[in-house]
Specification:
There is one protein chain. The chain is α+β, with helices and mostly antiparallel strands. It is built from 9 helices and 15 strands. A hairpin with a 2-residue loop joins strand 10 and strand 11. It is flat and about 105 Å long.
């Protein structure tokens, strides 16, 4: 009876003409992803499947038999391959997995034993468009890790209160062997006796309580540069989390959030203002006033403008970053009509209405009625 098992080449995602190096490369990538000790959790069943495929295809003799007979190759029982199981898994794949995971173990040991920089932290501040236009000096109050000078960052009351951890022998990690369906595996974990420091403190520092640092609320002053953009971050060095074993302290990143404005918008270095104007301003070409961060601008409207038209004033927008050059100011005209008119105003408007030949509604209807 023909086997229903998946094709080994399909399992590894390689062609039937794949070279030994290509097969090994494909297996390495899949093994990292599905190994039960993978940081993502792995998949034991999937890992067993790809390991079985690799054990056959990596052996030239076994591969030749598989290419000729498939899963019914000689030396198998019940349609299964010649995969010997996982009892000798470590010897079969030892070199390969030493390469895959050994470097991680070495890095882990270095992480707990050597100098490691502290984590960065992120906070946010909100600013206005005026702050964007002018730039701003700002002060925030924030809790900061401060290295303890009292104990010189050892966490101990005196140097004599520090000894090497007898459980991990000063490495900061411990190793243990675990039996699994895949065979015997060597694992590493943080030493729970010294929490990865490799040292034991008998008497803790009175200032930092053995933590090597203490938390202090500080007021930090920093400059927000002119023309900063929403979402940009400002970096303050050395105000993040404390480092490990004398590693550099992390940094503080301040994310900028720009408040929305009721009538002003920004696109790049261009400024947009939606400006209410009277219908008479449009008809008569009046001088209008435009509010800006530098005061009031006056501008005479050209005749013939329509509702929604845009007026552009060159070099009146936001500054370009790190430059004295400026973008443009775009005024979008929002033509307003009065809610009430006096009787005298109404009579004057009727006179104008009766005298003018401007009637866009009649012109439209006369043209549209022929096409409707």
């Amino acid at each position: 009876m023909a086997s229903k098992k998946r094709d080994y080449y399909d399992i590894l995602g390689v062609s039937r003409n794949a070279t030994p190096d290509e097969i090994k490369k494909a297996f390495r990538a899949l093994a990292k992803k599905y190994h039960p000790d993978s940081p993502t959790g792995g998949n034991e069943a999937k890992f067993k499947e790809i390991s079985e495929a690799y054990q056959v295809l990596s052996d030239s003799n076994e591969r030749a038999k598989y290419d000729q007979f498939g899963h019914d190759m000689p030396g198998t029982t019940g349609g299964s391959s010649g995969f010997s199981g996982f009892g000798d898994f470590t010897s079969t794949f030892g070199d390969l997995f030493g390469d895959l995971f050994g470097s991680n173990n070495r890095r882990q040991q270095q992480h707990y034993n050597g100098k490691t920089p502290g984590d960065n932290i992120l906070t946010k501040v909100e600013i206005s468009y005026r702050d964007v236009f002018n730039g701003k000096k700002m002060t925030i109050s924030i809790n900061v890790d401060v290295a303890c000078k009292e104990c010189k960052e050892t966490g101990a009351r005196t140097p004599n209160d520090i000894s090497t951890c007898d459980k991990c022998k000063g490495k900061g990690i411990v190793e243990y062997v675990q039996q699994s369906p895949l065979g015997m595996f060597k694992h590493q974990s943080i030493c729970n006796q010294c929490q990865g420091l490799g040292k034991i403190i008998r008497q803790k520092c009175l200032k930092c309580k053995g933590h090597r640092y203490y938390i202090e609320n500080q007021k930090l002053e920093f400059n927000i540069p002119r023309s900063i953009f929403d979402g940009q971050q400002i970096r303050i060095k050395g105000k993040g989390k404390i480092g490990h074993n004398g590693g550099n302290q992390g940094d503080l990143f301040i994310a900028i959030n720009i408040k929305r404005h009721p009538f002003l918008d920004r696109q790049g270095s261009d400024m947009y203002i939606k400006l209410p104007v009277s219908y008479l301003d449009i008809i008569l070409g009046n001088i209008i006033m435009i509010p800006t961060f530098e005061g009031i601008l006056k501008h005479k409207l050209p005749l013939g403008l329509q509702y929604g038209d845009k007026i552009t004033l060159k070099n009146q927008g936001f500054y370009y970053p790190d430059s004295n050059k400026r973008g443009d100011l775009h005024i979008i005209l929002d033509v307003q009509l009065p809610n009430k008119v006096t009787k005298t105003e109404q009579e004057k408007l009727w006179n104008i209405n009766n005298e003018t030949k401007f009637d866009p509604n009649e012109d439209f209807v006369n043209s549209a009625i022929k096409r409707i």
